[in-house]
Amino acid sequence: MKAVLRFGALAVGVALTAGGAGEAAQPSGKKASQAAAESRKGAARKQASSKQGPSKEAEAASKDASSKEAARQAPQEREPERQGPARMGPARMGPGSDNTPRIADAQKDGLADRKRDEAIEGFKRLIPKLQEGSHRRADMLYRLAELYWEKSKYLYQQEMNRYLEAEKAFDAATARGDKLEAPKEDHRESERFRAETMRIYEDLLGGYVDWPQRDEILFYLGYNLQELGRRDDAVKRYLQLIEEFPQSQFVPDTYVQLGNHYFDNNKLKEARSYYEKARASKVPKVYAYAVYKLAWCDYNGGAYDEGLAKLQEVVDYAGDRGEELGDLKTESLNDVIVFFVKLDKAKEGIAYFKAKAPEKRQERLISKMAAQLVDVGLYDSAIETYRVLIQDKPMGPGAPDYQQSIVRAHEGLRQRNQVRAEMKRMVELYRPGSEWWQANTGNKPVLRNAFSVTEEAMRVMVTDYHQEAQKTRQVETYRLARDIYKQYVDTFATSEDPEFISDSAFNMRFFYAEILWALEEWEAAAAQYDAVVAFKIPERDSAREVSNETYRKNASFAAIMAYDKLVKIERGQLARSELKDGQKVDENKSKGQIEKKGRITKKDTDQAEEPLTRFEDRLVAACDTYNKLYPDNPDEIDLRYQAALIVYDRHHYMDAARRFGEIINKYPAERRSRDAADLTMYVLESREEWLELNKLSRQFLANEKLLKPSPEFATRVARVVEGSQYKWIHEVVYQKEKNPAKAAELFLEYVKEFPRSENADRALTSAMVIFQEAGQLDRGVAAGERVLTDYAGSPFEPKIRYTLARLYEKLAEFRKAAAMYAAFVDAHDAATRADEARKAKPVASKGKDAKGKDAKGKDAKKESLSSDAPSADEARSSKDEERRQLLAEASKWVPDALFNAGLWWEGVGESDKAISAYRAYMSRFKDRPDVPQLAYNIGLVHEKDHKPAEAARAFESFAETYGRDSRTSAAQLYLARYRQLIAYRELKNARDTERVQGELVRGWAKLSPEEKQRPDLLDAYGHARFLAVEYDWQRYTNIRFKSVATIRRDLTAKQQSIQKLEKAYVDVLGTGSGEWGIAALTRIGLAYADFARNILESPDPAGLDEEQTAMYRGELENLALPLEDKATEALEKALGKAYELSLYNEWTLAAQDQVNRYRPGAYAQVRQVPFRGSEFFVTSDVAKEPGLPEVSQATPASQEPAAPAAPAPASHETPAPAGNAAPIPPTASGEAQP
Description:
It is built from 50 helices and no strands. It is an all-alpha fold. Among the domains are: 614-673, no CATH class; 677-842 and 855-903, Tetratricopeptide repeat domain (Serine Threonine Protein Phosphatase 5, Tetratricopeptide repeat), CATH 1.25.40.10; 965-1158, Serine Threonine Protein Phosphatase 5, Tetratricopeptide repeat. Helix 32 (740-753) runs antiparallel to helix 33 (760-774) and helix 40 (911-924) runs antiparallel to helix 41 (931-944). The radius of gyration is 48 Å and the shape is flat. The two termini are 75 Å apart.
């Protein structure tokens, strides 16, 4: 079977066991020549750096696939890593002086090379003079080969130096922008001398068959052939060595090299065979390395535990031999990580490294294991490992990197809450100024690394969440991104030290502001936009390159728009938005345009200055800043005008004059003014001096000379009289003076004075609400009913009916309330149909100007009373719009009206009407959260009406329809099944009772741990488990000691039965249900009491005299006494638990009664009290109670009445069952009574 090597190409010649195995057996005189073969690679590459071309050691190190997290250890220099087992060089090419790092000395090397050249020439002159085939000539050839090898190493070093210099120059030229051809390594000269060495080896093998060092030559030749990639030729030489010199000191090394060859070619069987032979040699270095490679054979064969054991053996073996096998121990400790990761034994790995690894290497090994756990997706184990690293050195330089890795691991698990928590923890622990920061103050590179690590992680994280939010548009994801942005800005964009202001701080502040805008958090967004405008980018090229200056202009404009919204919210012109979970967010939605203000209206300059509100002040400043930074922008005039109007409205007339003067000077063509005749009324209106305005407008209306020139003005003044009178009553008397009694009377007088006023029905509506607030409910009802009588078809009819229904509720006229709620729904539906019909009619005149549009919505009631009267089309359009607004307002109440109609119909005993209302609610608003609960409630209504069959069907329908609905919890479904069980028991439907009881027992496992703690669910489950024991209880109680002949058999059966029964009731007790736990304890007591009673009531044997009978009965009493004690103990426990839980029911009475039989008078006799019920009860929650309705302001045709408060949101108002009344418990002898 072909073995799959999972970790790529294996490194060649790693110095971990550079000495090999044969060194101990070599004559000391040969060590120098043996070391020469390996030193060429060792010394040359250590001096030449890792850029050497064909080095397989460098290649192996570069292929390390462990995670980058392990590479971030600040306190330690990262060692080169590789994957897969290390390679061992030949034993006799082992450690020598050339492998020791030394300072390169060009002069000494050059001198040595010249001496070497002289020696080569000397040997070349001497060798031809020696006898062909003599050992002397062979020795000289061998020494010449060694000189060639040293020459090859020297040339190789020179070639590498030239290459590195050329590469350095190439990098510098590339940085300057020059285009040059990349340098290449050239080793032709060194390879020529290496080839000459190989040729001499071949000559020695071919011409000197009796030379004693042929085994050594065969080994070196095979080794060099292997390095040159001529693997088959190398194998032939190795096999020749084994065959011709089986006792050679090079044979163990040869086994290792052959094992490596087959291992490299995925032939594990052959490789294992040679490694086993090498291990059998018992040469320490070869033995250790062979075991090491056998471990990797196990790994590639899937025997991970065996491989782990072998590597641990190598660590112990090498550790016992000190520095001799120190490198192999190091590599084995490094490689054992792979096995721990493969077996997912992180905890064992941590303990092992702490026990076996040098203390200074433990952190690096454990962190590398953690990184590899992340690489293979074992995030939980990786998190535990990183936590150990942090716990071991909480103030260590590597702690920020480990915490960052924990964050990434949680992200890999998609645990967003944990990502957020660990991210926050990372920032808190390692932010500037933290305890860790103080502990590492003297190490600025470490601090900078922590800053970079936390900044990068948080920036990448928040960017990912921001992008995900843009894709999903989910408000929850936006809020998560917002919170991380805030942490980022607070930590990386606010320091006084520019070194610790991130390059991305400017952009991230802007993105944070954009997120806040998208979430409609205007105040926070405005503050961040201001911060972006004022932000000083650090004086670093990297920061300037990253920062996008266009964001500053965008932020300056966006700040204006945000403050404008805040001002409008402040003034009540805009509702404060609050995005709900699940809502979609449109981040790309336009922020709008600068609002075009109307004409300037002069104000009374005697009015005292008022301070600008905080947001008004910020809006003015934002307008000024934008115009200052970006002069002559397209919005400049509107921004200047907006700022001027704000200060003008606050009566800062000097500042306003200056600002208006600037506008005039710069934009002389602009004209915005009001007519003088309307100015005074406008000023009074703007100051909301309604009483003064009413007096003044009445004077105007009485002045024929003033009105005669302009009928339109006269009409406008008449509107002001009516409107200001209404506003004075509503806003001053009612709202400001808080005098509802006076306001109500004035509204009635208003209707009397202006019975045909367009505000008459509005005034009566307001009076109705005020009477309601004043507690004069009867007068409120009278006012409302008058609207329905005298102003039929009023757009306020739905509002009137809805408010009347609520008044009837307070008057306890629930039948009227139910009927009026139903009438409200009918009125609303009729108004909706009428509105649709009006929309369908062709419009006579389509020439609507912008004024008509301005009269819509909430702005309609803010239209000046003293403005020009609208046209007929505008008036009709305004009325239609007001109707639609009232209809829209009423539409919000329809759900609660239907709900309350059902509630009160149910309350007055009209169950059919209640169910009809509930079903209408469920049909019209089937997506509302409380619909499943209402479906459940219908079953409770049937239950209350003692209609178990209908109740069972309703609960079954609930389960089938809403069982899989996300709005229905598993707990609710479970309770529905339980109510079915109660219904089926009442119907004495044994089959369905047993079916549902089984479903309840099986369904308990599907509930969440939280749901399993709910008392109602515990009682339902406990009851189901209790009923499951009924059959065994009946069997137990049916065992009677009726015959002396069968008493021994019956006694045994009774004993076995009570053991089973007691265990079953203990299981019921274990459910945690208080009520049914008490019932189970009571049943245990009653079971023992039944046992004792049966013993005492058993017949006497025939033929006993009086004395014998007495003795027999005495023995029976002795048998019964312990049972009675057990019965008493269980019953007392049941009673104690009942008192603890404040439960008093039939089971409590049964327990007391039985104890009284044993201890008469222990509990007082229970006095029977006849049942007294209330007039009615309902199973739903109380009626949904929105706030009191308000009526809008009095401006005919153009103003919107203030609505009653919206009905309570259905998401928070769901009907609940009246309770889970426990059914009558089964008794000791049957099913009905205890």
